[in-house]
Structure prediction request, 183 residues.
Amino acid sequence: MNHRLAVLALAFTLAGCGGGDNGPPSASEDYANTVCGDLSTWVADQQATLKSLEDAGPSISREDLRAAVVRVRDSGGVLFLAGLEPLDAPESDPGRQAKSELDNFEMKVLQQFGPVVRAVEGNTGVVALASMLTSALSTATNEVKSTLDELQNLDSDELKDAFQDSDKCTMLRDQVESIGSGS
Prediction:
């Protein structure tokens, strides 16, 4: 009986029904998975920071805000973007287009967080600072959706398909859409 199961398993595998894919992922698929996986982690970190601000509510202190800004800036925020920089986009016009989209995302995020970092070092009031940080986090997180849309519409069937079909990109899309729906 075990022999029969082994033969069936082999037959399904050879027929392509064994759950595997048709070989190792392409460079485009690896790139899409890495980018979307990193962006998903980044979004989760920013959402956790937003949640901690919401949980603190009106009793939030300047030190809580300073810690949130440091967390965003260092551990899961802006420095994350430096990790996207060395990713090797495929050497093609669409690969350069993908890198350009990620560079644009980085620029928009830095524009969101620059004033917050300066405000936490200055004399900005706690309520204004909390509002600035919450707004920057929300805007930057929503920029992920725009960036993912652009990556999924690149002028290359291979890269476009990689970003559309990647499990990590599907998870990221679901994650970002759940943010927009408030769930």
Observations:
- Residues 27-56 form the longest helix (30 residues).
- Residues 8 and 24 are 23 Å apart (CA to CA).
